[in-house]
Amino acid sequence: MFISKRATVAAIASLMALALSTGTIWAQTATAWSKKAALDAPDTTEQLYEAAKKEGKVVLYSMSSRSKDVKASFEKQYPGVTVEAYDMRNTEIFEKIERENAAGIKNADVIFVKDSDGTMANDFYARGVVHSYVPKDIGVKVANEFKRPGFAIYLEMKLVFYNTEVYDKDPIDSWWDLTRPEWKGKIMLTNPQAAIETLGLFCSFVQNSAEMAADYKREFGQDIKLSPGIANAGYEFIKRLAANDLIITSSDQEVVDAIGAAGQKNPPIGIATSSKIRDKSKGLKLGMVTTLKPRSSTGNPAYLPMVEGGQHPNAAKLLIRYMAGETDGKAAGFKPFDVEGAWPTRSDMATKSATPLTAMNLWSEDAKYNYPNTVKVTNFWISLKKK
After folding, report:
1. Predicted local distance difference test score (pLDDT) of residue 4
2. For residue 9, which phi and psi values (nearest 5 degrees)?
3. Whether residue 113 sits in one domain with residue 134
4. Rounded to whole angstroms, how far apart are CA atoms 88 and 5?
5. 82, 110, 127, 270: most buried by Cβ count inside 10 Å?
6. Residues 221, 325: one domain?
7. What is the mean pLDDT of the chain?
8. Regarding beta strands 187-190 and 269-273, do their DSSP bridges make them parallel or antiparallel, or are they unpaired?
């Protein structure tokens, strides 16, 4: 079974309300279920497969449509274990997990999500709604920052894309360039209210406002003057960006399709998830800027936590191992995500991207900061669009 993605607006409001009503706690207490699931056991693939065959299936709520490829190769590799994969938006997954947990419904075993607003770390992980499972033999090859609140198998980010038929080099070198008059009406952006990673990036602008102010001075040769009522240079950037006649879309796919179409004379540029660069294989003329100042972007880890009460814990652990590439990093489960624009978290895996992660100069995604501040940034964005 593979269920297609459906947009939901209510999910955003639900999660924002949740963020305001709960604390920012990172600690987690083991539950009876997590102890029984033996999340710290040194499992082998063979042991898990034998136990998984008795369970018969694993249920995955996934933010990525590429999970359908994981399903196909996993079921071929491990006959007798079915992957029931549901493809949903990130916020839809969180909303569904929250409702099922409250109702005592034990359906999902694994979720595949990002946590740019800090909901998973500060609420679901803290309350024991999800648990981190990191296979012992794979975990030694992964930095600690990618092990909690779930095992992150790769990293993406929001970057500025452009058409390589028209531009033979990066057309901008600073985020502030997006506020210049020459780009007015030529910048595409997925609606931040439906793109949690974009809101996370906006939070980084605000959190690191001193860096944004310093780069403004580098770019324009003078100190920034904040608009009345604007708290810092990060908010000022968002304000000026919004005022530059943005082209708002419903998906990153729309962004890259419009930017990368061949035969254009005056194409737009835009912000999209880095792994969309893989659409060059479809004939799109795409390049992305990896050296923007003051930072290239904010890293967005892709997490694979297990869900409290899941009925197929061994199959879930087997699936996580598989999607992480197994012990040698060569399992087909990671192949759909092993693309240009995605950086593996494992030290023994090389990226297909031309720019190594060490050269990206990224802000780290700060779940504790983003958790309360995503709501503030969202409200600020909404206020700008009403003007």
Report:
1. 38
2. -90, -35
3. yes
4. 4
5. 110
6. no
7. 91
8. parallel
Q: How far apart are CA 46 and CA 51, in angstroms?
A: 9
Please give the average per-residue pLDDT across 264-273, as a whole number.
Answer: 97
Shared domain check, 230 and 142: no
Placement of tokens 């083991």 in the chain: 30
Quick one: tokens of 110? Answer: 């694994």
Query: Has residue 312 been placed in a domain?
Result: yes
The CATH number of the domain holding residue 275 is 3.40.190.10
**Do residue 18 and residue 89 come from a single domain?**
yes
Instruction: Tokens for 42, please give them.
Output: 């040194």
Report pTM.
0.89
pLDDT per position as a tens digit, 45-75: 999 999 999 999 999 999 999 999 999 999 9
Using an 8 Å Cβ cutoff, are 276 and 340 in contact?
no
Indicate whether 385 belongs to any domain: no
